[in-house]
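BUG: 3D viewer hangs when loading the predicted structure for this chain

Environment: internal workstation, default settings.
Expected: structure renders.
Actual: progress bar stalls at 90%.

Input used:
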Amino acid sequence: MLELTILGFLYEKPLHGYELKDRIQGLSGHVRPVSDGALYPAITRMVKAGLLERHTEPGTSAAPRRTLSLTPEGREELFARLRDPKDADITDGQRFFTLLAFLGLLPSPADQAAVLRRRQTFLNTPASFFYRDGTPVRAEEEADLFRQGMLRIARATGTAEKEWLTEALRQLDARA
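Structure tokens produced before the viewer hung:
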């Protein structure tokens, strides 16, 4: 997800490494903080792969600043990752939110809708944090107050997300 996030923010505009880190922190830092030890090696890999370019420019102080920008290959990589996200990007809530942050960059409403349909299918599959005899446990069946809370919160969140997905898919289908 770090690489998708880098590609997505650089699609919007060229950024300095620290600006990029700030944007990534704002998107998911409270859940998955990004360290310099993860960010800068990822940037280096992506530069070597031809997805990003580094430009050196004079800094406001004595030190020069490096600006990162997306290459045409980086743009195509971004679109490929958005069109065909990994299963974990669909099933993990935080990863899906990261995907949503950039899904609007994908030019095709049909491609956008296909990703949302995958999430909708996942959400419509009966699941739980807890199982009894292979069957998902519902909040009403859970005696533990805290587990019941987990299940109720997840159900409410899932219900809201399903409603939004239905609305979003209706709009995207109308555009396609």
